[in-house]
Amino acid sequence: MRHGKYPFIVGFLAAPVAIYVTFVIAPYAQAFYVAMTSWRGVDANPSFVGLQNFERLLQDDVFWTALRHHGVLLLAMPLITIVLALFFAFMLNVGGGGRGGAMTGVWGSKFYRVVFFFPQILAVVIVAVIFGRVYAPDESGLLNATLGAVGLEPLLFMADPGIALWCVIAVLVWQAVGFYVVLFSAGMASIPKDIYEAATIDGANRVNMFFRVTLPLLWDTLQVAWVYLGIAAFDAFALVWVLSVDRGGPDRATTVLGVEIYRNAFEYSQFGYASAMGVALFFLTITFAALTLRVSRRETIEL
Amino acid sequence: MTTEIAPSAPAAPVAASKKARVPGGTARDVRLLSGLGHLALLVWAIVVIAPLLWIVLGSFKTNTEIFLGGAFSLPASISPDTYIQAWNEANVGRYFLNSLLVVSLSTTGTMLFGAMAAYVLARYSFPGNRAIYYMFVSGLAFPVFLALVPLFLVVNNLGLLNTYTGLILVYIAYSLPFTVFFLAAFFKTLPQSVAEAAMLDGASHTRLFFRIMMPMARPALVSITIFNIIGQWNQYLLPVALMQGENADQKWVLTQGIANINTSAGYQAEWGALFAAVTLSVLPMIVVYAFFQRQIQQGLTAGAVK
């Protein structure tokens, strides 16, 4: 049985580990070092500058702007997405009311679920290009044409620094909702039917049912959703890069850390400074995930 | 995993329970609420579909029609001109084939290496097993942006910048954490008895893996393959960082190509061709999704449900 075990193990692990260490572990480890150098460009020699990049970061207005945008994204995007997805999932699974004692979804549930999920499989870049036209500032855009049809003034959307970030959030929500509808539906399907039956017999209507039965039993799934969406709120690079005016504009009104990292690295060749931003982003993400898991922990209801 | 709630054990007769449970006006409230719910579902379905349909509509229009004809008007004639322009002049065809080449190789590599590593880590005990496992899984916690600059330097030092080999290896490397995490959990659940029987029959470890374990792990392999195909097909940051240099535009993948067509459409005002390019890249997704929507939903939500 044991014959030839170690050659086999080594043989199977060698290639995956080699690729992984070269392209993932080594760069991650180096990032912390590069962040403490004033490395500018491939050919330049890196010189160690300690925490200078981080000091500069703290005084950089762009960094704080990006951070503030992540804050807005972090508050708005998961909240809107989860509320919409929860509502839709509830309608699709339980909204049809009791039929023969079991809770069913509304008519056409299957169709809705298939349609809602579709944006999820599209590349963010494609979505960004589509919404670039949907948000066009004149009446050739879908939204402004609609506004015009009901007699409203056209909006500038992505060109208006006051609402550009919210336009980005709307696209993020547009793409994400379907995924969470499916996720929450799976969670709702695993709630035993007798609980709904018991609630029905006790006279609960659908609103009661949602707040007293579905929501508490879905807590774990909600927590997963919140962490996922939160981590997505720290990204948003591809969408902002392609959709926004001037890559993060107008006047940095939509910029996020990913955009600034990319710009510093590949447009200004400031490798050290870009890496320092990467390190900051890493600690932000980790802190967020740890905090969420900590704060939202509560007794799981055993079924 | 799927979401249909099958009708089961009958409870109290509906009519009776309805009478019992709704005192006074609440029945109307509930019906109103359910009506609003229906409406909300319908509105969201329109919000999802409308932009896509509108892009398809626009892809048949000329520039003049797009800007002066009103956003909802139908094109004067259906001609394939914009599509020919997108496919040939804007190189959508080339980008599409590039993506196909890169993703078919990188997903195959990801699945092969991911399954090999996951299998060994899940079913063999040896010193360092846990360390290697956690090394793989820790990759899930790091944002790619942290590695961006050093990754660029590593790929550059290996001479792989602006090559498919480099891009494919990087795709594989960044897909491994989730693939290993997911498949290791699955390989752990496979019964030991089958493995022992095969070994008694004289199968080697390698043969056991390819002939017995891989077929048994099929459902998990399918889910995670779909997850990787979609993730790698849609990737933007990695190719945009790594496929730069001389003649890089010949090697761009579809996402890069579309982003570039988008930028130049702004200067040259060739919106019809842009709409056609977007339609061409969305269409295959719709076709694939129509056939495999169950598997795709399962594959993409696999990570979150676990």
From TrEMBL, chain A:
CDD domains: TM_PBP2. The chain crosses the membrane at residues 7-29, 72-94, 114-136, 163-183, 225-244, 271-293. This is N-acetylglucosamine transport system permease protein. It comes from Micromonospora pattaloongensis. Residues 67-292 form the ABC transmembrane type-1 domain. One of its GO terms (biological process) is transmembrane transport. Keywords: Cell membrane, Membrane, Transmembrane, Transmembrane helix, Transport. It is a multi-pass membrane protein. GO terms for cellular component: plasma membrane.
Automatic annotation (TrEMBL), chain B:
GO terms for cellular component: plasma membrane. Its main location: membrane. The keyword Iron does not apply. It is found in: Cell membrane. It holds the Pfam family BPD_transp_1. InterPro entries: MetI-like (IPR000515), MetI-like_sf (IPR035906). GO terms for biological process: transmembrane transport. Gene3D superfamilies: MetI-like. It is a multi-pass membrane protein. PANTHER family: ABC TRANSPORTER PERMEASE PROTEIN MG189-RELATED (PTHR43744:SF12), ABC TRANSPORTER PERMEASE PROTEIN MG189-RELATED-RELATED (PTHR43744). This is N-acetylglucosamine transport system permease protein.
